[in-house]
Amino acid sequence: MQHRQRFSPTRWSREHWILASVFAALAIFVATIIPGFAAAIAGQDEAADHTTIALALPTLSTPAADARLPDVPAWQSVTVRSGQTLGAVFEQVGVPAAVMLEVLALPSANKALSRVRAGAELAFDIGQDGRLRALAFERDESARVEVRLKGDKYVENVIERPIERRLMIASGEIDSSLYAAGEKAGLGPAVINQMANAFSYDIDFTQDLRVGDTFQVVYEEVWRDGERLRSGDVVAASFNNRGKEFTALRFERNGKMEYFDLSGRPLKKGFMRMPIEFARISSRFNPRRKHPVLGTVRAHRGVDYAAATGTPIMAAGDGRIAFAGWQNGYGRTIIIDHGRGYTTLYAHMSRLGKYKVGSRVQQGSTIGYVGATGLASGPHLHYEFRVNGVHRDPLTVTMPKPDPLTGAELAAFRAATAPAMAQLKRIEGVRLAAR
After folding, report:
1. Which end of the chain is more exposed for a tag (fewer CB within 10 A), N or C?
2. What is the pLDDT along the chain (435 residues), one digit of tens a residue?
């Protein structure tokens, strides 16, 4: 008996499933492509039915050629250059000299602008018609001046700007020079110079300074509107030089600020040890020295300070100019008669200062400038100190001491300097504790 295999629709072979998958994929592909062709054909027909036409747009309205914008302030700042006059500054911004004279007729403007210095800033507001409408500048650290055109006249307005003086403290130790130690302690050149000048009668910073010397200083900083402007004056300082303590306290006497020691004696002596700042001693007082130019052995009756040509030379003490001019091997020379038998000589200057024979001169005033005139091998100051015509070594001669404060002045001095002394002691305590 023959048996026939029956087909069941529920049982597909592997081949059936593969064929079905292929047909399904073809169907999906056709369904996707045909609408795309239809859309492309329709797009061609649509493009053929539309035409692009260029339309002329209406012209936008513009302001008339002579119309002007509102005349708003147009400030421009000018920094005065070295050698530039006020007239040149006004000319630079196109303001006539006649207008400048109107401005200078105002009290505060005249006071500040008649001696304007290089670096000063002036702000100009100039209108479209070229006329000066306003001018602004600093009269000084505490006031700003604004000049404005009111009608046909200029008027000024002074704006006060309060100055604040803050006390600062610093300390340092010498490892090479006073300047290096001062900068390391955060001090500016002005404060370092003031401290050096205060102690210059007792300490020769060219030869007395030693590694390990220490200093403490209380000084002012000048602030305005929360901004630091500059360093102010040294209020108090102490300097330990080779184990010896020196103190300088600032105190106003007869309307003038001076420095005093702890006992109330002025630090300013009748004579400065060194009439030139931070120079190097190149030759000392010597009865028998071989002259560097002549080559002969002769007495060197002064001290030579080597410095760059043009370095200012100061009067060692108050006195009267007894000689100013050329003196043989000394070249350009100044001799000052200080009275009581004291005279000083300054030689080899490149040029003399403004003082003439017979002029009175104060201690510290610039009387000339370092040079190499006369018999000199290089730029330096040759400085001589004479007592009743006899040459003395300027580095070792005993200087006359000034009288100390007494009575009510001494009491006022102690009361005024007590806070600064407390600050110095506090700095010293901190420094010692840090060791």
Report:
1. N
2. 444 444 444 455 556 555 566 566 556 555 555 555 444 444 444 444 444 444 444 444 444 444 444 566 678 999 999 989 999 999 999 999 999 999 999 998 888 888 888 889 999 999 888 899 999 998 888 889 999 999 989 999 999 989 999 999 999 999 989 999 999 999 999 999 999 989 988 888 877 889 999 999 999 999 988 889 888 899 999 999 999 999 999 999 988 899 999 999 999 888 888 899 878 888 887 765 545 555 555 678 899 999 999 999 999 999 999 999 999 889 999 999 999 899 999 999 999 999 999 999 999 999 999 999 998 889 999 999 999 999 999 888 887 778 899 999 999 999 999 999 998 888 776 665 555
Secondary structure letter of residue 294 according to DSSP: T
Distances (CA, A) of 152 to 6, 72, 149: 124, 19, 7
Query: Which domains are present in the chain?
Result: 75-160 (3.10.450.350), 163-269+402-435 (3.10.450.350), 280-392 (2.70.70.10)
Helix (H) or strand (E) run with residue 91 in it: helix 86-92
Task: Give yes or no for a contact between 178 and 214, defined as CB atoms under 8 angstroms apart.
Answer: no
